[in-house]
Design goal:
Pathway: Cell wall biogenesis; peptidoglycan biosynthesis. It comes from Methylobacterium isbiliense. By secondary structure, this protein is an alpha+beta fold. It has a ten-stranded mixed beta sheet with strand order 3-4-7-6-5-14-9-10-11-13, with helices on one face. It has a two-stranded antiparallel ribbon with strand order 1-2. It has a two-stranded parallel sheet with strand order 8-12. Strand 5 and strand 6 form a beta hairpin. The protein is globular and about 50 Å long. The chain starts with a strand and ends in a 7-residue tail after the last strand.
Length: 232
């Protein structure tokens, strides 16, 4: 399946994922939410939590490397937080301004993940449905992308799965009204991209996080992306 995700550069090692812009008219959604994170942990404790949650995953089809504490701002580490929202449990809510993805849970909580989102001019907002899930997916650049970046022609029939594949360890494919939007929630092995405006619309999570999210959300789950300027 085609995807709008594209690597930062092409060479021996492909850096994960920039994405082309595609037209997606999604209705804006209302959201009122707040989070509360414990401030009691010391800086060393927060750094230790990063290394605990982002250990290597050697048993994956393609081994996932560990993330060092100095590679990720601790606030973007996966954690359960207080979260007030009208969306029901099981909904995925993305706040592109805060660079957080929330999986709504029971009792006013959510599992929160740090994400990288669309850079200026490539953001999108609205709602969609996870219509398909894939482990270690193949990435195929669209024809329009190949025209702009001829070096990607070698992947016209698909780039094989792997840690350098722009979609990473997992991909959740977003559909609207039964049609593929070309937007994805997907993995990356580049921690420097988390908390940044780096893509052309897709939402990227660390491979460890997208694996965790993949296990928690079934196909058919609703995804809501808040418009810029509306904080969760």
């Amino acid at each position: 399946m085609h995807s709008s995700c594209t690597p930062r550069r092409v060479g021996f090692a492909l850096r994960p994922a920039l994405l082309i812009g595609v037209s997606l008219a999604l209705a804006a959604c209302n959201q009122t939410a707040s989070t509360q994170v414990s401030l009691a942990a010391t800086a060393p404790q927060r750094l230790a939590a990063v290394e605990t949650r982002y250990q290597a995953l050697p048993d994956e089809r393609f081994p996932v490397r560990a993330i060092r504490a100095d590679e990720l701002d601790p606030k973007y580490a996966r954690q359960r937080v207080r979260y007030d929202t009208h969306h029901p449990p099981g909904t995925v809510v993305v706040d592109p301004d805060a660079k957080f993805l929330y999986l709504v849970q029971e009792g006013g909580y959510a599992m929160r993940y740090g994400v990288g989102v669309g850079r200026e001019g490539f953001g999108w907002s609205g709602s969609a449905t996870i219509a398909r899930k894939a482990q270690w997916p193949t990435w195929t650049p669209p024809t329009e992308m190949i025209k702009r970046q001829p070096e990607l022609r070698q992947y016209a029939s698909g780039m094989k799965p792997g840690t350098e594949n722009p979609l990473g360890a997992r991909a959740l494919y977003l559909f609207q009204n039964g049609r593929d939007t070309l937007y994805r929630l997907h993995g990356t092995n580049d921690p420097s991209s988390i908390g940044q405006d780096v893509s052309s619309g897709c939402v990227r999570l660390l491979n460890q996080d997208v694996i965790d999210l993949y296990q928690r959300v079934p196909a058919g789950s609703k995804v809501v992306v808040l418009p810029h300027g509306r904080r969760a």
